[in-house]
């Protein structure tokens, strides 16, 4: 199998667990470094000039390598550079709490152990944990890779179907308003960072308004350091357009939020969120762009029952996969996307999110459920 960038073949790509490092039981054995030179402080990003292969990791222990080429490397280097300002902001917050090493250590415990997730609150971290500077440090160090690359791949898949054509044409008009993109539950803003670079560099959109929202207000400083407007927003309360102060938005990005707010049919709060999202589509939002962890999302069926069109962007020949979907106004017709293992053709970050586990389990005939332990 030729596994060089540009030679990836759908779910059989390297990355996401195929090449997990195995020391064969040798205690103390050092994990071999990828080829080339390290491009970041923690060793999550590597570039081999000879082969033209960029290796990067999204997990804490750097067990699961992903691969891209020079164009992907340039985008990840930009991410590392942008994260420098966020890390500086984070250090200020940790210093305000005392010894930064102790704060970071406690944050790592919260990040890894996820004590609230073990309870009955149906959230990864509590409101206070989510605002802990030590936890935020590890979020910046680790989630940056996942949220940026997954969002960028999601936008590329959506573009293959023509999602942005009309909005880009409208934004190009001399008297047109800027294209507006809002992220719900965006934390520091990595989803918008991906959207900005994709729309600006690939789609040549020069007039952009980017708004980040989150229930945790301490993300504001980080978001503003990336150059984005920030508004505190609870998806269960209030009106999104009123919160950000505009009458129309083109695209809404929701990453790893729906499972907590729109996953239980019959739950009044979850049903209300689905109603709210449908109302956004009725008020001019062209698409709600969704990333999630599990391959089957109850929210998709809940939205379809409301007449909302669902475009599933991941390959479906190996079983239902709703990790990357578009929620669209009723009747919306997009171009047909690539089929089967061609679903990763042309992607800057192939095999993101990873798909080879579906092949290993026997595709649609195998056991369901995605394997996501590597994210921690």
Write a short abstract of this structure.
This protein is of the alpha/beta class and 376 residues long. 36% of the residues lie in helices and 14% in strands.
Strand order of the largest sheet: 7-6-5-8-9-11-10
Characterize the main sheet.
7 strands, mixed
Please estimate the helix content. 25-40%
**What is the total tally of β strands?**
11
**Termini separation (Å)?**
29 Å
Q: Approximately how much beta-strand content do the residues carry?
A: 5-15%
Structural class: alpha/beta
Q: What is the CA-based Rg, rounded?
A: 20 Å
* Nearest-integer average pLDDT: 87
Order of helices and strands: EEEEHHHHHEHEHEHEHHEHEEH
Shape: globular
Figure out the total of helices.
12
Unreliable runs: 1-29, 364-376
How is this fold's topology laid out?
Elements: E1 37-38, E2 45-48, E3 53-57, E4 65-68, H1 70-96, H2 100-113, H3 127-130, H4 133-160, H5 165-172, E5 179-184, H6 190-201, E6 208-214, H7 220-225, E7 229-232, H8 240-244, E8 251-255, H9 258-261, H10 268-282, E9 287-291, H11 298-304, E10 309-312, E11 324-328, H12 356-360
Parallel strand pairs: 5-6, 5-8, 6-7, 8-9
Antiparallel strand pairs: 1-2, 2-3, 3-4, 9-11, 10-11
Helix pairs in contact: 1-2, 1-4, 2-4, 4-6
What does this structure look like?
36% of the residues lie in helices and 14% in strands. It has twelve helices and eleven strands. The protein has helices spanning 70-96, 100-113, 127-130, 133-160, 165-172, 190-201, 220-225, 240-244, 258-261, 268-282, 298-304, 356-360; strands at residues 37-38, 45-48, 53-57, 65-68, 179-184, 208-214, 229-232, 251-255, 287-291, 309-312, 324-328. The strands form two sheets. It has a seven-stranded mixed beta sheet with strand order 7-6-5-8-9-11-10, with helices on both faces. A four-stranded antiparallel beta sheet has the order 1-2-3-4, covered by helices on one side. A hairpin with a 4-residue loop joins strand 2 (45-48) and strand 3. Helix 1 (70-96) packs across helix 2. It is globular and about 50 Å long.
């Amino acid at each position: 199998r030729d596994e060089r960038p540009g030679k990836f073949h759908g779910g059989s790509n390297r990355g996401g667990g195929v090449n997990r490092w195995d020391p064969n039981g040798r205690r103390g054995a050092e994990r071999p470094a990828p080829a080339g030179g390290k491009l970041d402080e923690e060793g999550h990003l590597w570039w081999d000039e000879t082969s033209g292969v960029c290796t990067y990791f999204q997990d804490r222990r750097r067990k699961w390598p992903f691969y891209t080429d020079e164009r992907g490397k340039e985008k990840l280097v930009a991410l590392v550079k942008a994260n420098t300002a966020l890390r500086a902001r984070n250090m200020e917050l940790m210093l305000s709490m005392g010894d930064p090493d102790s704060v970071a250590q406690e944050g790592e415990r919260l990040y890894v152990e996820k004590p609230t997730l073990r309870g009955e609150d149906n959230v990864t971290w509590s409101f206070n944990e989510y605002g802990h500077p030590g936890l935020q440090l590890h979020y910046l160090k680790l989630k940056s890779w996942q949220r940026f690359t997954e969002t960028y791949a999601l936008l590329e898949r959506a573009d293959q179907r023509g999602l942005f054509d009309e909005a880009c044409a409208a934004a190009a008009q001399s008297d047109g308003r800027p294209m507006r993109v809002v992220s719900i539950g965006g934390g520091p803003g990595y989803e918008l960072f991906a959207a900005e670079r994709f729309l600006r560099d690939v789609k040549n959109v020069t007039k952009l308004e980017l708004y980040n929202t989150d229930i945790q207000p301490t993300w504001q400083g980080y978001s503003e350091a990336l150059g984005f407007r920030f508004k505190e927003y609870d998806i269960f309360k209030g009106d999104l357009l009123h919160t950000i102060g505009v009458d129309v938005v083109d695209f809404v990005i929701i990453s790893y939020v729906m499972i907590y707010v729109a996953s239980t049919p019959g739950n009044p709060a979850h049903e209300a969120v689905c109603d709210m999202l449908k109302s956004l589509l009725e008020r001019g939002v062209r698409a709600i762009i969704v990333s999630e962890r599990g391959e089957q999302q109850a929210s998709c069926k809940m939205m379809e029952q409301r007449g909302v069109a669902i475009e599933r962007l991941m390959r479906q020949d190996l079983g239902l996969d709703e990790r990357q979907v578009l929620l669209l106004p009723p009747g919306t017709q997009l171009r047909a996307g690539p089929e089967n293992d061609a679903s990763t053709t042309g992607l800057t970050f192939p095999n993101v999110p990873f798909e080879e586990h579906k092949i290993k389990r026997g595709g649609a005939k195998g056991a369901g459920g995605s394997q996501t332990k590597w994210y921690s």
